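#dry-run=false #mode=assembly
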Amino acid sequence: MAKQKKQPRPKAVTPKGFRDYRGVEVTRRADMLAKIARIYHLYGFDALETSAVETVEALGKFLPDVDRPNDGVFAWEEDGDWLALRYDLTAPLARVAAQYRNDLPSPYRRYQVGPVWRNEKPGPGRFRQFYQCDADTVGSASMAADAEICAMLSDVFEELGLGGDYIIRVNNRKILDGVMEVAGIAPDDERTRGIVLRAIDKLDRLGEDGVRALLGEGRKDESGDFTKGAGLSDAQIERLMSFVGANRLINETVEQEKSALTDRDDISPNETSLAYLADIVSGSETGRAGVDELRQIADLLAAQGYGPDRIVIDPSVVRGLGYYTGPVYEAELTFEITDEKGRPRQFGSVAGGGRYDDLVKRFTGQEVPATGISIGVDRLLAALEAKGRFDGVEDGPVVVTVMDKSRIADYQKMVTDLRKSNIRAELYLGNPKNFGNQLKYCDKRGAPFAIIQGDDEAARDVVQVKDLKLGARLASELSHEEWRDQPAQFEVPRADMVAEIAKRLG
Amino acid sequence: MAKQKKQPRPKAVTPKGFRDYRGVEVTRRADMLAKIARIYHLYGFDALETSAVETVEALGKFLPDVDRPNDGVFAWEEDGDWLALRYDLTAPLARVAAQYRNDLPSPYRRYQVGPVWRNEKPGPGRFRQFYQCDADTVGSASMAADAEICAMLSDVFEELGLGGDYIIRVNNRKILDGVMEVAGIAPDDERTRGIVLRAIDKLDRLGEDGVRALLGEGRKDESGDFTKGAGLSDAQIERLMSFVGANRLINETVEQEKSALTDRDDISPNETSLAYLADIVSGSETGRAGVDELRQIADLLAAQGYGPDRIVIDPSVVRGLGYYTGPVYEAELTFEITDEKGRPRQFGSVAGGGRYDDLVKRFTGQEVPATGISIGVDRLLAALEAKGRFDGVEDGPVVVTVMDKSRIADYQKMVTDLRKSNIRAELYLGNPKNFGNQLKYCDKRGAPFAIIQGDDEAARDVVQVKDLKLGARLASELSHEEWRDQPAQFEVPRADMVAEIAKRLG
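#status=ok
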């Protein structure tokens, strides 16, 4: 190949960080997304498909000081305008909500499924093009909109057969604001608020003591590096720790209540949480509003039959607190998987969302309240695969082999007959000379059966059927001698072929 | 708005030539594509989804002399590499077939559905992002592969409810090559061959006489402009005209045969065509091969039960003859629509394809035969809409209105009950103060029913149901007085609400 290098051949590769999806990778995702879309539709959400390309101006990523806006997006100049591939489905929703504000119903419930593109450093399992699946309600300030999103998400998991394997946690950004208020941290003290948010976000890793150190003077890690803290007073720290440790303290309370009661059904974890949170934000108007919003959501969900075993108030949900303005929600799958080091761990988060303002304001100047959820499509699909949802359901096609090139029409007729009975089937279309290649092809296709008809079979109007899955099992279980004696192959009259295959496929 | 122009607001618009799709525009297309994918899958075709972004090198659009490759594609430079959005689904297939050639089964049947992007001047109904839906078989030289594509396309139309409304026409590029050969036009005389191809392509518009003129000295059009012709001799022209006029001559022969026979079933239009074509390419090896390929396809399709009422040999299919190397096919919808000027015309072409070489050769140096079809997704969807396939099947959701803000949980419960019976339903999530706005919202949503429950109804445990579609019909048919006497509104016990709505929705 290197000898005649006049016109070098192009490299057959995807660009760095991109990939292709083949066969079941495509159809499993499509099936999952169709089920999700069915639930969204049932809830009155309307489909939306925005163009993949947006103006950089509409996306809001324009950096006036640089020649080229590439802050995480793929962008290029076209006739003097900067265009870019969308990096999420929320920015295009904002543009649509503004562009069609006179046409769209208000409130506007919409869902969108599709790829987004990020100009970021790719890594293992991290690609520059991936799917998102969002549902948002634009133009409603009602907590019923937030409760509905949580209920819908719960229905999605039930529809996907994940009942009992998920929990949706709900928190409210205003509660932390209230705690900061009663701790005496000024609303405009961005530096302290930033340190507090980052410290709380590290609770999982550092534990309560570590967070406490970061709220005070600072913390020295194992390597000896010192991180300067927020420098708050002990009283301030205790106020904040009542939020940081809320989940542990609430759980302890629930356990105490449980042990003091005979009828355990009387315990309401949500009531305990709400009472606890109302207590720690006592004196803050914002905090009170946050607790009130959480109570409204809890009451609405309880009235619809979504108990705390499915959707629960949980102050430990802090992800995205900085971005959202009211309720926030996060969905976790609770079943265990084995991680790459062989240790069991919970599958974890697959969806998150919350309430946000300023969606349309950038365009129109009018504030429009909105709330919504984004499902991590690849993570959810991986979860369904981990749960074995797709095991053994996707055979390849039945392959009709070609023994005699001059009788292609007869073989093709067999394929047609199979297809007419809704059996996925193929004629071998390669060069039929080497029959071994035909059987190798059947293997590669994952064919459950191969149909064979030579002159002898044709004369007797029968076909040979090779049960390839049984054959593979026999080959792995039996010695070569036994296997030769029990070939997974049988003869069937041509007229009975379709019925026999249909029966065996179940 | 113009007063405070410090930070001008971004414009909420799609880039020029792009558009969004909302509601049924998205779901109808998705439903149609799911039906097509079901047929493709049944035929053993595997799904493929390539990345939207390709290297310009792989796409084959690289222009070494210009700073920027923009020959019809959207392209940009990324870390020294030129990337571009795919402009069709065939170029990515070529890349995939080369990249995974050791993994893929051979032959490789694949289908792909998705958007493609063209950097072309947009026009009415012409957008820079649009859907394609392709199926190709890579690595098979067998005419059975071409016949299969035609049969599959026929099955697609049947699945979409277009039985009797379509015809798939098949031709072969080699026949025109054979005719040119016997007419004495050299294979390397690109200029003459180009003129001949362009002239034949104009048959519809210019008629046989116009084409004849272009094959000879040339032709003066109505405006007086003269187009220089190919300058062929009369004998050469007659040879070529035997191909140009083939369809008319074959049809005349079929009619003659029909009138000479009593049993019309004995007429085989395909046999007549093949005999005629064999005659006009007599003496050319290439032409003979083309006729032989057509005969193989016709025989295979006949054996599978696809008669010439569905798939027919038709020498008038010239579209794309320049690009393809063997069989070419084109699918037309034959029902009449009314064009923008009110004249009836056939709906026309919705899919086309054929056999092509050099698919993978660019990358690997190895020739790989391939054949495939591309469906014009937007045209086919428009056809289904023109046929009324979607009439009256897509109501909006049932809307539960809010009469008393403090009873949201009760209203939400009604919505939940409806959804549990698979009835699409919504709670009104806007500000409930103005009830008129709630009814306007119902209209905008296309709601079939609105549910109303005020204090009085709640006390009696009933709901009012407004039949909005009946109401709209009554309002258009009756005078205001009659309409007021027959309001399309009825009362139903709360416990019977879901069953009553389900019954009325059918």
